[in-house]
Design brief:
The chain has 228 residues and is an alpha/beta fold. The chain is built from 6 helices and 6 strands. The structure holds flavin mononucleotide (FMN). Flavin mononucleotide binds next to α2.
């Protein structure tokens, strides 16, 4: 009887120790998994907001400013607006493919463009819709470089005169960006339809986009963290 009680007591003792050890192991494992999926940044993510239009209009600039103002409230990122128009990029005529360039770019205009784009961790590209596609100016600017964009996360903001908000332009550009440039796209696009009547007099967008901009930033941070 006493022997049985001794055995039962020891068994219960071992069982409780075993349970404590296993619980600690499971908690440790779950915490490690949670930390793995949580994006960690050692410095604010550098985002360039690229205006894809080179036309003499201020639509792209106004949209870029709205996005920057929303994004800059997030301490995890720093943003800069890059207007392709300011670079006066020529049509790309260099006989060497940008992707196979082994030496430093010597052309000062191309070098400035390349350095500007290279210095970002991620991008938000503003895409106006032209004849159900994206502007040739944007394609030329992208085709003038290559490795500068490689494996980096990118988000799209489409805008158009019609009701789609640049959906077709984004769809076309996404194919080039993923298949050609092997960049990392995120799930959220922002669409601004009827661009000619999308703004208040002070240039702010009538439809507030701060929430989608926050989502885009979270997704860019997560995508960037996955590449590190
Ligand atoms: C050449 C050209 C083609 C256009 N094609 C379309 C179109 O297919 N669908 C649409 O909804 N809007 C179209 N638009 C309207 C533009 O998307 C709209 O005006 C936009 O705000 C232009 O942006 P931007 O001034 O920054 O270039 C077109 C405009 C231009 C100049």
């Amino acid at each position: 009887m006493q022997f049985n009680t001794f055995i039962a007591g020891n068994f219960m003792n071992y069982l409780s120790k075993f349970t404590v050890i296993w619980s600690a192991f499971i908690i440790f494992h779950l915490t490690a998994c949670a930390q793995k999926t949580q994006p960690t940044l050692t410095a604010p993510l550098k985002i360039k907001i690229i205006i894809g239009s080179v036309r003499d209009t201020d639509t792209g600039k106004k949209i870029a400013t709205n996005i920057k103002n929303s994004a800059d409230k997030n301490q995890s990122v720093t943003t800069e607006i890059v207007h392709i128009k300011d670079f006066n990029l020529p049509l790309y005529v260099d006989p060497i493919d940008p992707g196979s360039k082994k030496t430093e770019i010597t052309d000062p205009i191309l070098k400035k463009w390349s350095d500007t784009i290279k210095s970002a961790d991620a991008y938000i590209i503003l895409v106006p819709e032209y004849n159900s596609g994206y502007p040739g100016s944007l394609k030329n600017a992208l085709d003038s470089i290559y490795t500068e964009l490689h494996n980096k996360p990118v988000a799209f903001v489409g805008y158009s005169g019609g009701p789609s908000g640049g959906a077709s332009a984004i769809a076309q550009l996404k194919q080039v960006i993923t298949k050609g440039f092997r960049m990392i796209t995120i799930t959220t696009d922002i669409n601004i339809p009827h661009s000619w009547k999308a703004f208040n007099e002070d240039g702010t967008l009538i439809t507030d986009i701060s929430q989608p901009v926050n989502t885009v930033i979270d997704q860019l941070i997560a995508a960037y963290s996955n590449t590190q």
